[in-house]
Amino acid sequence: MPQITVDGEKSFEAPEGTKLVLAIEDAGIDILHRCGGIARCTTCRVEVLSGEVSPMGDEEREALETPDMIEKFRLSCQFRVESDLTVKVWGRAGEKGMEPGSRPED
Ligand code: FES
Q1: d(CA 42, CA 57)
Q2: Which atom of ligand 1 is nearest to the CA of 36?
Q3: Cα(32) to centroid(ligand 1), Å
Q4: In Å, how far are 5, 42, 43, 74 from 36, measured between CA atoms?
Q5: Distance 91 CA to ligand 1 centre (A)
Q6: Is 74 helix (H, G, I), strand (E, B) or coil?
Q7: CB-based contact 33:43 (threshold 8 Å)
């Protein structure tokens, strides 16, 4: 099973094919997903520091908008775990003072 490391603080295993946002949340890590996983809010964005991820799709690219954002981030609701990953979570509900949002579909 792929090993996910988040912000250098926690590592856990997640079944291959799991949406990254769900793998992170199910590991007990606070992560925002305000739009419910439909590539609109970008609050679920992560920096992928290492590991293989699928190419970015058009919806994800449009949501991230700017070249800088596209270069730096991926939307964790828009790709599935395929390999060991090290990521940095951008938005935590606790830090931003928001509700996380409805749970993205599997
Ligand atoms: S873009 Fe909104 S949850 Fe991923």
Answers
A1: 14
A2: 3
A3: 8
A4: 23, 10, 10, 16
A5: 11
A6: strand
A7: yes
77 Cα nearest atom in ligand 1: 4
Topology of domain 3-93 in CATH is Ubiquitin-like (UB roll) (3.10.20)
Q: Where are the chain's structural domains?
A: 3-93
* Amino acid 90: pLDDT: 96
Residue type, 106: D
Instruction: Write out pLDDT tens, residues 5-42.
Output: 999 889 999 999 999 999 999 999 999 999 999 999 99
pTM of the model: 0.96
pLDDT tens readout for residues 43-81: 999 999 999 999 999 999 999 999 999 999 999 999 999
φ, ψ dihedrals at 80, nearest 5°: -110, 155
Q: Enter the tokens of residue 12.
A: 């856990």
- Tell which atom from ligand 1 comes closest to the C-alpha of 39: 1
